[in-house]
Amino acid sequence: MASVTSNTSAIAGAGNRSATLPITRIEPQHGSFSLRLAELWNYRELLYFFVWRDVKIRYKQTAIGVVWVVLQPLLTMLVFTLFFGKLARMPSQGLPYPVFYFAAVVPWMYFSVALVTATNVVVEHQRMITKVFFPRLILPFSAVLSGLVDFAIGFVVLMIFTLSYGIRPTVSVLLLPLFLVLAVLTALGIGLWLSALNALYRDVRYLIPFLVQFWMLASPVAYPSSMVPERFRWIYGLNPMAGVIEGFRWALTGKGQAPGSVLIASVTMVCLTALGGLLFFNRMEGSIADRV
Amino acid sequence: MSITAIRAENISKRYRRGMVGTSGLLRDTLAQALREPHRFLRRDRQENFWALKGVSLEVREGEVLGLIGRNGSGKTTLLKILSRITRPTDGWAEIHGRVGSLLEVGTGFHPELTGRENTYLSGAILGMGKQEINRKFDEIVSFAELEQFIDTPVKHYSSGMYVRLAFAVAAHLEPEILLVDEVLAVGDIRFQKKCLGKMGDVARGGRTVILVSHQLTQIRRLCQRTVWLDGGAVRRVGSTAELVSAYEDDMTSNGVADARPVAGAAQFLRWQLSGRERTSEHILPSDDEATVSFLLRVNRPLKSVVHSINLYDQDRHLVWGNDYDAVTLEPGLYEMRHTIPTLPLRPGVYTWRVGVYEGGLPLDDWECVPQMHVTTLPVSHSRDDSAGVLNIPSELQIVPTCTPK
Q1: Minimum-distance CB partner of A18 among B3, B81, B87
Q2: Which residues of A221-282 form beta strands (DSSP E)?
Q3: How close, in Å, is residue B98 to chain A by CA atoms?
C-alpha cells in the first residue's frame, strides 16, 4: 500500500521546505504480508483519542455508570460462589470461593468485552473508514485498550475484596502486570482476527456470544486447571486465556496454580495468534475498505 | 520553480463484486464453497467494474485543480485513492507533503460528546495534532459562531450548528495538500459565503488543492486548471474557463448520454417533462399537473429494487421525495414516468435526483442535468426570502369574534 518514507525530496535546489516534506507512494497491494506497527506508532495520538472517546462515551451513556462496572463481576462472582462453590463443591485451591471466582471473573470480563467490541469495531466505523485515512489497525487496538479502564476499576474492587478476606499479597504480585499484558495481547490477537472476519462476513458477530460462552467453560474461571490431568495440561494450555486466568489468580493471591506447562503453552499461542492476527488484518485491510 | 505536489500515473481501480451471489455472509460463502468448489476458486470476470481506468495527472505545488464530471465518473474514487482510503488496482501515485482529505463534513462526530470534545476528536481524525488543535481552538469556535454552545453535547445542536462546527474544524486543517469533495455546499447562504471565503484563502495561500464540485461557479472562481473525468477516464484537461464551458455544453445536450458509464446494473440516461402544453422539456411553467419522465437503462434483471425520486431547490434543500418499493425489471430501456398532480414551486432552479437501490446500496444515483427551471408566476415577490419554497396562493378573511368582557 502506501509507504511513507522520510526521504527528502529528490529535487535538488528546490528549497528547504520540500526537503522536509514526507513523500508518500501509493501503490496497489502486492499481496505482501506486513506488520505495519511503525505506521501505527506514528498515529499513536489518534489511537489515544479513540480510546479517550470510547471511555468518555461509555461513562456518559450509562445512568449507573461506574456502579455497573463493579456490579457485573460482583454478581457473576456471587452466582458462581453459590452454584459452583457451595452447591457443586468444586475445588478452589485453598482460596475462599468468592476470591477464587472474583479473581478470575475480572480479567475474564475484560477479555470477553474486548472481544465483542473488537469484532464490531471495523463495521461500526465503516462510514469513517470510507471518508478519511488512518491506519485501520487503530480500530481493533482501541477496542482492546478502551476496556482497560473498566478493568482498572474492577481490579481496585478486587484488591479491596481480596485484602478483606485476609489474603496478603506475596512477592508473586510483582508479576501481575505481566499477566495483564498477556491478557491484553490475547484480546488483541483474537480481536484482530475477529474484526477482520466480521468486516468481511457480516454474520460472524452472531457467533461471538456462543464463542465467549464456550470459551469461558474451557478456561479455568469456574474451576482450577489442576482438575485437568497432568499430561493433558499443555493441550489445555493451548487456550491462551487458561494461562492468563491461572496466572492472574496466582499472582494476586500467591495461592492457586503456579505457572507451569499451561502458561508456556498459552504464551506461545498468544504470540502466534497475535502475529497471525496482525498479518491477516493488514492483508485484508484493502478489501475491507472496498467492501464496507 | 515549480515542484510537483501530486503525480499520478495510470491509476486504475476495479471493484470486484465477487462471485455471483455473494452476500457477504460467512454461512453462504461456506455453503457455496462446499457445493461448488470450482466456482469458489475461479474469479468470475463478469462482475468487474472499473471505476477508474488509466488516469494520470500532475498537480504543481500551490495549484488549485478542479475535478469535474458526472456522478459515477470516478471523481470521488480518485480522491479516495489519493487520500489512501482505498488502493488502486493498477498504477501508482506519489505525493509530496501531508494530505488532508475533506470528503464529508462531520467525520468522527459523536452525538454524545460536546462540541469541544468533538472538535478535538474530529481534528485528530482529520490529521491535526493535539497541540495544533489547542492553538486553533478559539479560532475554530469563533468561525463556527458557537462560543455559547461549545460545551453542550452535539446531539442538542441544530443541523445548521452541527454543520458549522464540522466545517469550521475542517476549514482549519493546514496540510500541504487538500483534497476537497463537494464539502462547500453546507449551511445557509450566509455561512456558505463564509466557507467559500475561507476556501478562497486556503486556495490563495499556496496550498495545493484538488477540488471536486458540481457547482461550476465555484470551480470557475477557485481553480486555474480543471480535469474532466468521464466514465473513469480523463476526458479533457485544461484551463478552467474553456473546460467548464465544454462540460456545460455537454450537460445540456439532449442526446442519450453515452458518456455516462455503461457499467453497472442500471443507469439513468436523461429526463424530461412531458405532457400537454409543454414548451420545453426542462421548464415548468405552471403549478398544474406535471409529468416528469426518467429514461432508465437496465442491464441485468432487477428484483425488488427501490426507485427513489427527490427534488432539490437551489440551496440543496430537499423539497420533495418519494420511494417506490418492489420494482422488478428485466434488462431493457424504460421510461419511469412520474405524474404529480401539482408542483406549486416558486420560480427558480431545481434539481431532480433519481436513484435505483438494491438492498440499500445505490445501483445508480443521478443528480439530473440539466436542472429544471420553474417559471410559475410567483404569488409573492420572487426575491422575497421569507416566502419559503411553496408557491401557493391564499386568502385572508378577518372575522371579528366576540371579545370577552
Answers
A1: B3
A2: none
A3: 7
Mean pLDDT of chain B: 81
Average confidence score pLDDT of chain A = 84
Substitution target in A53, A205, A287 with the highest count of B β-carbons within 10 Å is: A53
* Percent of chain B residues past pLDDT 70, beyond the cut: 84
- Going from the C-alpha of A257 to that of each of A218, B13, B59, B113, B160, the distances in angstroms are 16, 56, 65, 45, 61
Residue B185 has what pLDDT?
Answer: 55
Mapped onto helix, strand or coil, the DSSP state of residue B74 is coil
Cell of A33: 504480508
Which site among B10, B99, B125 would you substitute to test the A interface, given the most A Cβ atoms closer than 10 Å to its Cβ?
B125
Walk me through the domains of chain B, giving residue ranges and CATH numbers. Answer: 4-247 (3.40.50.300), 266-379 (2.70.50.60)
Question: How far away is chain A from the Cα of B1, in angstroms, using its nearest Cα?
Answer: 7
Model ipTM? Answer: 0.82
Q: What distance in Å separates the CA atoms of residue B117 and residue A59, rounded to the nearest whole number?
A: 14
**A186 burial type by CB count under 10 A (0-12 exposed, 13-18 middle, 19+ buried):** buried
Q: What DSSP letter does each residue of A142-209 carry, written as one string?
A: HHHHHHHHHHHHHHHHHHHHHHHTT----GGGGGHHHHHHHHHHHHHHHHHHHHHHHHHSGGGGGTHH
User: Which of A61, A132, A204 minimises the CB distance to B112?
Assistant: A61
**pLDDT value for B190:** 76
pLDDT at A289: 74
Chain A residues whose beta carbon lies within 8 Å of the beta carbon of residue B129: 45
Query: Residues A184-215: pLDDT tens digits?
Result: 999 999 999 999 999 888 888 898 999 999 99
Check if the beta carbon of residue A133 is closer than 8 Å to that of residue B103. no
Higher-confidence residue: A116 or A258?
Answer: A116
**Residue of A55, A131, A136, A194 to mutate, testing the B interface (most B Cβ within 10 Å of its Cβ):** A131
Residues of A with a Cβ under 8 Å from any B Cβ are: 1-2, 9, 11, 13-15, 18, 21-29, 45-46, 49, 53, 56-57, 60-61, 128-134, 197, 200-204, 286, 289-291
CA-based nearest distance A252→chain B, Å:
37
Neighbours of B165 (CB within 10 A): 28
CB contact under 8 A, B112 and A27: no
Instruction: Supply the pTM of this predicted model.
Output: 0.72
The H or E element containing residue B295 is: strand B290-298
Q: By three-state DSSP, how is residue B274 classified?
A: strand
- Taking the C-alpha atoms of residue B258 and residue B252, their distance in angstroms, rounded to an integer, is 14
With a pLDDT cut of 90, the percent of chain B lying above it is 21
Residues B331, B298 contacting (CB under 8 angstroms): yes
CB-hemisphere CA count at 13 Å for B363?
24
More confident call, B255 vs A257? A257
On the question of pLDDT at A14 being above 70, the answer is no
B158-169 tens-digit pLDDT = 888 888 898 889
A56, A202, A290: residue with CB nearest B86 = A290
Which residues 6+ apart lie within 8 Å of B250 measured at CB?
Answer: B259
Q: For chain A, what is the total number of helices (H) and then of strands (E)?
A: 12, 2
- Domain segments of chain A: what residues? 1-30, 34-291
What confidence score (pLDDT) does residue A148 get? 94
Between B54 and A259, the higher pLDDT residue: B54
Across the interface, which of A21, A49, A133 has its CB nearest the CB of B120?
Answer: A49
Query: Strand B290-298's sheet: what is its strand order?
Result: B266-274, B290-298, B332-340
> Smallest Cα–Cα separation from A11: which of B60, B98, B92, B176?
B60
